[in-house]
User: Fold Helix-turn-helix transcriptional regulator from Candidatus Frankia alpina.
Amino acid sequence: MATISTPRPAPVPPSTDRSSTVRPDEVAGDLVGAIAACCTPLAAAPLSAEAAEQLAGVLKAIAVPARLRLLSMIYARDGGEACVCELTEPLGLTQPTVSHHLKVLVDAGLISRDKRGVWAYYRPVPGALATLGALFRPQSVAAGTPPEHCAQR
Assistant:
């Protein structure tokens, strides 16, 4: 994976006020990047071609705003399921368009589909979002303590 580097301000002598040259977002970005690179499962070992292909498919599925909203609406729904007929109006999309987006989410393994008569009902796949989130969650958060190699940094 290519690393994108941003230009850094020139070093500031110790006697100079740094508040005008060091931006908080740069410091936070460096910190988040160091933690993520050090402690997430994605950084523990290179992905196989097959695993990368599968993960890319899931990430593509949720990269579309309408699909992300659908996923959120289904997961937040009382009763744990939603009919396609209940999802079109809140999104302002036609039923065929919503059905297409739902099919992509089903194919990605994030929701399941249950056909009842002429209606299709969608519900969350248990653990799907937790599994996806775990790929990006630092291991120190999951385990309660940072891995040994993170403590050495």
Remarks:
- Residues 24-40+139-151 form one domain.
- The beta strands are 82-83, 111-116, 119-124.
